[in-house]
Write a structure and sequence with these properties.
The protein has helices spanning 9-13, 25-59, 70-75, 137-145, 150-163, 175-184, 214-222, 233-251, 256-267, 279-289, 329-336, 367-370; strands at 79-86, 99-108, 113-118, 124-126, 132-134, 169-174, 188-192, 196-198, 203-205, 208-212, 274-275, 297-301, 306-311, 318-323. By secondary structure, it is an alpha+beta fold. The strands form 5 sheets. The chain has a 6-stranded mixed sheet, with helices on both faces. A two-stranded antiparallel sheet has the order 4-5. Helix content is 38%, strand content 19%. The longest helix has 35 residues, at 25-59. The chain is globular. The chain is built from 12 helices and 14 strands. The N and C termini lie far apart (108 Å).
């Protein structure tokens, strides 16, 4: 039986009966689609793999750790620590991740000297690869972007770029931990050198020696809506140094065991209280520097090296500070030679640090005398 030419496979492939048969274009298209599907699936699988690796890296404990290089600092006879104060859950707005206070502490083990440098939180400049911001934003950006070491990690890297000095470890406290430490110590005593009143919180402090519990000490360290010299952010930073000095004096009267128990207590208060110092390192620091001579502690304000200016950015306008003439060299020189002189650096209207009463204590040193090469 002769097959019907209208129904043969060849007639379907050669409908015009030319006698020339070509490959089915439908089959060719299907094979092309399959190749595209394979490529797209491979790319999608690769992207998923990369995303999985990134997420694992970002959320792995090691990625969120800040390297501890204390041993290297001790070996070089200069140990630099960063102290960060954050509001944490006490902030009802969006500022809980901003650094409320930023303090650079340098220690020289061989001579048992120390220097405390308050860094303006409004210092404006590059923050990693995230553009220019106020320094207090580094902590928030680092915590929200998955930066290695989180907020402390990015803040440390930024300050190392500013000062040209390594930071070997950090301590971060939130307001709850701050109050707990001071209350556990039975309060602290501070010489209020100028009366001042905060017009926003409708509260203030009278001149004279005052005993403060944790809440009052926190207010003393934070108030800034003030008319007069104490309304200056640099004065606020030096009040924070006064609190540190008073806490150190109280800790001198405690045993190393008591101090460690206090540290363990505050570390459990919130996720914002953190340090990468080991227990052994904290014991060593306490034994080495707890009874340091106050005359060997240098208190430094960067006010003589800074100038105020107005930010006109759409994101975060307002007042900020920068090095005079945008030149960081004098600041770096100061920090590099911080132990060449132990006199206070500041301006004549700054709070004085002295074991003698403030009225008879030495005037704060002009940076021209303490570090000639560091004059802006």
């Amino acid at each position: 039986m002769t097959p019907d030419p209208q129904k043969t496979t060849f007639s379907r492939l050669d409908p015009e009966k030319t006698g020339s048969f070509r490959r089915n274009p439908v089959l060719k298209a299907r094979r092309g689609h399959r190749a595209i599907e394979i490529i797209l699936f491979s790319v999608f699988a690769l992207l998923l793999l990369v995303a999985a690796i990134a997420l694992y890296t970002i959320y792995s404990p090691r990625h969120r750790e800040v390297p501890n290089t204390v041993d290297k600092g001790i070996e070089n006879d200069r140990l630099n620590l960063l102290f960060l104060g954050v509001s944490g859950d006490r902030d009802v707005g969006g500022g809980k991740d901003l650094a409320d206070s930023i303090i650079f502490v340098s220690l020289k083990p061989s001579t048992r000297q120390a220097a405390i440098v308050s860094i303006p939180r409004d210092l404006y400049g590059p923050v990693g690869s995230y553009g220019k911001h106020r320094l207090n934003m580094a902590h928030a950006i680092g915590g929200q972007s998955g930066y290695p070491g989180g907020g402390p990690g990015l803040t440390i890297d930024t300050i190392e770029e500013i000062f040209g000095q390594p930071l070997h470890a950090f301590v971060r406290l939130d307001f709850n931990a701050f109050e707990t430490i001071i209350d556990d110590l039975g309060g602290i005593d501070i010489d209020v050198q100028r009366s001042f009143h905060d017009f926003l919180f409708k509260d203030g402090f009278e001149k004279g020696r005052q005993h403060m519990n944790g809440d009052r000490a926190l207010r003393y360290a934070r108030y800034r809506y003030i008319d007069g010299p104490e309304g200056d952010n640099y004065a606020r930073e030096l009040r924070q140094q006064q609190v540190i000095k008073a806490v150190r004096e109280k800790l001198q009267k405690r045993s190393a065991g008591d101090v460690l128990r206090l540290v363990q207590t505050v570390r459990t208060l919130s996720k914002y209280t953190e340090t990468n110092l080991t227990t052994a390192q904290m014991v060593w620091l306490y034994k080495t520097f707890s009874d340091i001579d106050p005359g060997k502690i240098r208190h430094v304000s960067l006010k003589p090296f800074m100038e105020k200016f107005q930010l006109k950015t759409l994101v975060d306008p307002g007042e900020a500070v920068r090095p005079i003439n945008s030149d960081l060299k004098p600041v770096r020189q100061l920090v590099a030679t911080i132990f060449s002189d132990m006199r206070q650096i500041g301006t004549p209207d700054d709070i004085r640090f002295s074991s003698a009463p403030p009225s008879s204590g030495p005037a704060p040193l002009d940076p021209t005398a303490s570090a000639p090469a560091a004059r802006p």
